Amino acid sequence: MYKTANEIAIELNMPIQQVLRYIYEGRIKAVHDGEQYLINSAQFDTYHEQIERIKEEIDIWKSTPIPEDIDVKDED
Fold first, then answer.
1. Which domain of life, per UniProt (predicted)?
2. N or C: fewer beta carbons within 10 Å in the chain?
3. DSSP 72
């Protein structure tokens, strides 16, 4: 499915200028139909999967309790 650069910018939560710069640099593959750039959104599937995996890892990290320090001695 093809989306416009504006739609991709909203989806990726980045400014349109950055998306256009990535297109000019070749980091995002796009076709120009004479009026606008069209981007195949399937190229971002891996990106979205990686973001979701990282979010899950961060949630696991946040919910892991901090272990007690083994050097702490009970003074009682």
1. Bacteria
2. C
3. -
Cβ partners under 8 Å of residue 9, min gap 6: 15, 16, 18, 19
Of the candidates 21, 18, 16, the residue with the CA atom closest to the CA atom of residue 5: 16
pTM for the model stands at 0.62
The DSSP line for 6-70 is HHHHHHHTS-HHHHHHHHHHTSS--EE-SSSEEEEGGGGHHHHHHHHHHHHHHHHHHHSPPPPPT
Residue 3, classified by CB atoms within 10 Å of its CB into exposed (0-12), middle (13-18) or buried (19+), is: middle
Domain boundaries, the chain: 2-63
Chain segment 12-30, per-residue pLDDT in tens? 889 999 999 999 999 889 9
